[in-house]
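User: My collaborator sent over this chain with a note saying "see what the structure looks like." That's all I know about it. Can you take a look?
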Amino acid sequence: MTVGLLLAAGAGERFGGPKALARDADGTSWLLRSVQALRPCAEVVVVLGAEAERAAALLPMSVSRIRADDWAEGMGASLRAGLQALGPTDHEAALVSLVDLPDVDAAVVARLLGAVTGPDVLARAAYDGVPGHPVLLGRDHWAGVVASATGDRGARDYLAAHEVALVECGDLASGADVDER
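Assistant: Without extra context I'll predict from the sequence alone. Here is the result:
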């Protein structure tokens, strides 16, 4: 069983506000779109931080919420909080995604989930050969990722030091994140 772990805790300083509260010009909530993208997973868990109460109010009751108290430190804090909260569960892997990936949808998630499985998996979506998000972290790697996740680097250093399967998704999405309005 793989859990979808959505990191949505940041203040979005370069963006001008928390991306968990952002909406497209047509009113589409980035947070809800990102949750929908993770629906191929057995469960969806969202890590919140900046404006956590306002963001939590947007989520359906079926979505679990985790608050990263040290969210201001960066993505590493959100990733640590999420993986630590998942520790007592029976999930064998976590598919980690970000709230600011507008064209990453359920098709990308399903392809990544279908390509590799198991508690020892390390895989990530690639777009035209360039590694991106989401990232699939098997349970065997959670402690190592938690130990190395600092600042805005998330799992980057851990992934660089290990063999990671790339799953090409460039035909489905660009995988580009949005940092500015």
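A starting point for your reply to your collaborator: Residues 75-86 form the longest helix (12 residues).
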